[in-house]
Design a protein that fits this description.
Elements (H helix, E strand, L loop, with lengths): L1 E6 L2 H16 L3 E8 L3 H7 L5 E5 L4 H19 L6 E5 L3 H9 L3 E4 L6 H7 L5 E5 L4 H6 L7 E4 L17 H4 L9 E5 L18 H7 L4 E4 L4 H7 L5 E3 L6 H7 L2 E4 L3 H9 L3 E3 L7 H8 L4 E2 L3 H13 L12 H15 L2
Parallel strand pairs: 1-2, 1-4, 2-3, 4-5, 5-6, 6-7, 8-9, 8-11, 9-10, 11-12, 12-13
Helix pairs in contact: 1-2, 3-4, 8-13, 10-11
Length: 343
Amino acid sequence: MKIWIDITNAPHVRFFKDVIKYLKSEGEDVIVTTRDFGDIHKLMNMYKLDYISIGSHGVSLYEKLKTSTERINEMIEVIAGEKLDVAVSKHSIELPRIAYGLGIPSLYVLDNEHATAANKLTLPLCNSIISPNVIDMWKLMEYGADPNTITKYNGTSELMHFKNFKYNDNIFEDLGLNLQFDKTIFMRPEPSLASYLDTDCNKSVLTPIVNELKDYANILILPRFSRQAQIFEDIENVTILEPPVDTSSIIKKSNLVIGAGGTMNREAAILQTPVISCYPGKTLSVDQYYIDKGLMYRSIETEDIISQALSSIANPKEEVNIDHDDLFKLVVDKIYELGSNNR
């Protein structure tokens, strides 16, 4: 079977890495496309995954439209000559449109119901959609998704990131970190280049939080791009991490995670490291899932975040048991189901 997977964002590398390796171990022919955006290429190389890089990512709406259109044109030239059985992506704009146009069955993994533009452009075209139970089916139908194509599961997509995770308890030593305090806070700035978030690339909601907490704990920051790193580089007791790094071990080793994004916050919740979400957009259903279970705290008020942070590092909570579905099996089974039906 010949399978096409398109990876358009750094977290998607962790989502698909074990799927790609499994499919190849089963003798399947897997074509992986990516784009020049964030840390995608670094992570692909870190996990020793082969890929074809096509296109990039714009900043303004004009640039995003232009680069997406150019990427579709370039990808068609690569994909059209392949006899593909199934196409798979997670919030890729281009794959579902190309797959639909070329008559290739497509599987789409979704976890953001607020990504209006992406969902409207893709969901009506997909043969199969995998979505967390916590996301309202009616919301997806508003975007044009056929309810008969939607498969639900208990949990969030970040479960895939830990399929073969091996915790490195010496991660701080391996990174050569010079830590002053016995408590460490790991922070991730907002995805300010994302189409679903209206923010300034030259600022961060984390800045006042960092300025207050740097006198109580080691601050580790993983920026999304070089301009974002510059926001924090002159602040005392702040370590800016250079990707690619073992973020899962860093999260587990840290005493607290404060994130203005989503993926690493949810990874922290799964690893049961205390996490505060200060995401500046609407609360996603997948975040609310962990908030309701007491595994994530949500606030956009600086003073509240600082107070909660100090309380969390001083009084760690006990772990709780949560039952999740086997998302890895669900994804792989759907790939084979779609591919077999097309043969």
